[in-house]
Amino acid sequence: MATDLSSVANQRVVDTLAARLRRRQVVGSRETALETVLVLRQVISKARFSNIDQLVEIIRSVGRKLVEAQPKEHTVGNTVRKVLHHIREEYHTASKGTAVVSTSKDTLSIAKFVLQGQPRKQNVPQKTTLNESHDMLKENDADDPDAFARTLKPVLMEAIQDVLDELETVHDNISKNAKDHIHSDEIILTIGKSSTVEAFLKAAAPYRKYTVIVADTAPSYGGHDMAQSLSSAGISTVLVPDSSIYALMSRINKVMIGAHAILANGGMFAITGSLLVATAARAHSTPVVVCAGQFKLTPQWNLYHEYGALDFADPSSVLGFEEGNLVDKVDVVNPFYDYVRPELIDAFITNDGDHPPSSVYRLIKEAYDDEDYEL
Amino acid sequence: MSATATITMSALPSKSTIKLAPAQSHAEASSSQAQNQPPKSQKQMTKTERREQQERQRAAKAATKAAGPQPSGSNQNSAQVKKGAPPAASTSASVKKGGKGPDGKPTKDTKETTSDDSARGLRIFSHFGLPKPPGPSKGDIHPAIIRLGLQFSEFKIVGANARCISTLTAFKTVIQDYVTPPNNTLSRHLLTHLSPQITHLVSARPMSVTMGNAIRELKLEISGSDIDLPEQDAKNLLCQKIDDYISERITIADQVIQETAGTKIKDGDVILTYARSSVVEQVLVGAWDDGKQFSVVVVDSRPMLEGKKLLSVLSAMGIPCTYLLLPSIGSVITEVSTVLVGAHSLHSNGAVFSRAGTALVAMMAKQHSVPVVVCCETYKFAETIQLDSFTKNELAPAGDIFSSFPLTRSKDTLTLNKQLNLEILNPLYDLTPPSSITAVVTEVGVIPPSSISSIPLALGRTTL
């Protein structure tokens, strides 16, 4: 229920982002997440609401609009869910204080345990400002409809700033323990251009001497940019075409790839070619490590197993118009992403620690609230 | 007492000689100086002379290790060093002054160490070296062979069958133009005449197994030719034998394979093939001509992007085709009914050596329970065993000679050349393990990969 006066401005901001998403002018998990957070921050700062449900509904409607504009960019929905999760947390802390923790301890049942996941996030540090406003959190106040919003907004802004900070420091956090994952004289295989993997490898470079083999994932050829960037950082790099992945796999110690979105079952969507690499690695028992931020965790499943995410790119990079007489006689397929099963992945390195694919469901439970899975 | 004294004395110069060793590699100048002095025992030598002897020994060791990379110009560097100054100072002197030789000498030394660091990258394929354009021909090379070598090195003729047939055809010309010199027999001299021609071809591009097998047969025929035959008759006989070889082992074999493999294709099938195999092309064209209705998925990949040629042939005939690049294969493999690939050579352990990328295709197909059928003539059988794709492979030349990058991406953004810390490798072949292959179709039958080693028996040879 967006309130009328400020909704015009809000909608413009939201519509701009929705249009850019639809036209694919903003592409990439991290960029879309950052843009979404900024839009949400603007929406919330201008929003008028008298109780928590109204606020949640405002954010949800914004989220729904953005996700509809570009359902293939899962991080948009993830960010909205994360913001909602934080908001609810702040609200609970503000209105009930420490009572929340005691209630969870009182009724310990298996159902509660499974539903609430690990209780570690419940211990939110008490903010001193809230102790004062504890009595003043009035909901649905008829005289002063904005009182609730006014008292809660600073807290919400902080919460959103947390989300923003997390997004901005994703690469640093993931690369923190980079040197512990790579040993000397190792040969690592990577494909495409993942900024997360790039940051990870560059972080380990001063401490370890190793080699990186980059496959120039056709047809996006992101591997070329990756190879340039890594070699200019002083890492000895070898650029090979995708056709030699199996040939080289017996010499490779580790495969390190990025993800587009991590799905609820522990599988992931990643750039086309990741399935080949992961399968070849499995055939040689080489560990496959995925570097991804937590904002990529998506509480969804892959229903379309054949074409990863049913997302296709421009076929002219596969068969261009220079092959004039072939263009209309031939079907050209150019999917963006591959779906990689959880059995092919050995570890996810996230900014919140390292996890095997089997515990992804638990991470999702902690990061998002149940009621937000369907925006 | 004196022994320990010498040990402590020698400990000192050894530290300083470590600094010297990279700066000098040829000990010749130093050794020539040493020869001017009569040999003394260690006790009699002064400190500097002992030091010099240590240096000479170390330099000799370094010279034997690093023989070759440093030209003799650095002799003058070491000559400067010997001028009696303490070794540390002289090291810096030789490094700074640059020696009497050409200027780049000391910088070359330091550059060598850094290039060692950057080239530590991959020495997996270093035993190939990159292909060089064929140098000026030494000796009498027939113009047909020169032309062929040029076509090979520019990849105008690709594919195991094509290369073999063109080689044999060129050799026919060579044999017809050959004149036995007096006091020589054709059967012996022709072989020596052919050797430099073969070497020239190998320098253009490493020999394929098919070429190797064919040439071996040819040499056998030549050495077995009758001495009493007049020369022209002998030459005609050899050319006839060559024609028979091509016809039996390649042309007719291909027809048999086409019929056999054609029976594996049914109406409504989706056939997947990788890159361009002449045999698979014949199979598909033959099956379409027989009236079978099927569709083809052509998978292609850098560096050669040969699939486009196959695509134009098939689509010109009206076969419904889908074209995609290798990384996208995971998306279509579930719809495929059979995978047909060609081979460069077959090995005794059942492995198939084929265009780079075939192993990936076969692996994915096996994962999804799609049968992988290799179409291959028996003359491609190599009696060696190959376990990995490194020991015998070929690297495509650097740069973009196949124009394999899409026009949608500007060439500036692509990395086409080697740089510091960056190496570009384009292996052309890879090895598909026997576990990924379902069957091999040859002209002697359809055999499982484990029976590949019995192909010579099937051909009637009693010994391998």
Sheet with the most strands: spatial strand order of chain B: 3-2-1-4-7-11-12
Beta percentage of chain B is 5-15%
| Assembly state (oligomeric) | heterodimer
Give the strand tally of chain B: 12
What level of helicity do the residues of chain A show? 40-55%
In whole angstroms, the N-to-C terminal distance of chain A is 15 Å
Helix fraction of chain B by DSSP (H/I, runs of at least 4)? 40-55%
What's the alpha carbon Rg of chain A, rounded to whole Å? 23 Å
Side-by-side strand order of the widest sheet of chain A: 3-2-1-4-7-11-12
Mean pLDDT of chain A: 82
- Coarse shape of chain A: globular
- Measured by DSSP, the beta-strand proportion of chain A falls in 5-15%
Low-confidence stretches of chain B: 1-38, 68-119
End-to-end gap of chain B: 69 Å
Structural category of chain A is alpha/beta
Keywords (chain B): Cytoplasm, Initiation factor, Protein biosynthesis
Region (Disordered) (chain B): 1-120
Biased composition (Basic and acidic residues) (chain B): 46-58, 100-120
Biased composition (Polar residues) (chain B): 1-17, 71-80
